[in-house]
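Our consortium's second objective concerns turning raw sequence data into structural hypotheses that experimental partners can test. To show how far this objective has progressed, the report includes one record in full. It was chosen at random from the queue rather than selected for favorable results. The single chain below, 170 residues long, was entered without modification.
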Amino acid sequence: MSKRVRAPDVEPPRQNRARAVSELLPAIHGAAFKRFGFVQSALVTRWPEIVGTRWAAASAPESLRFPPGKKAEGVLTIVVRGAHAPMMQHIAPEIVERVNRFFGYAAVARLTIRQGEVAKPMPRSAPTALKPAPAEIGDGLKAIADPELRAVLESLAAGVHATRGIPKIG
């Protein structure tokens, strides 16, 4: 008897639509997060929402380890910037409560704190505003009845107008 695992015969249905990168990320980084004990990557990505922006600036989740065979009563390890560690010890029960509320069950029983460097979150910048499309392009779009389609096409026209010349391929 062979120990090889056969690939499934059924292919998942294609969605034939453009998807946001954020929609694809759970599938991509899921294995990396599981390696470090994060069953759900949302604990890392939504840390500021869970503990608040003040504490998220000084801390970051490092791992979530469960007892063998269980998915509850785990130990959450967080990395805390130097001087913030004593304060984090004081609010540890509140952090455990917030994480458990986020999961919806008693996933974390204990919190351990490790001092270290916490990466600063990258500031999000607003996309640059496009110049409005020239009037001769915009006149043809006014006849489109669907407002959503018209808005997308106007945005496309403004983007094309903002570029210089023919796009270079390769």
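The partners drew two points from this record. The two ends are 51 Å apart (CA to CA). Helices lie at 21-35, 42-45, 47-51, 53-56, 85-90, 92-103, 135-141, 147-162. Both points have been shared with the crystallography group to help prioritize constructs.
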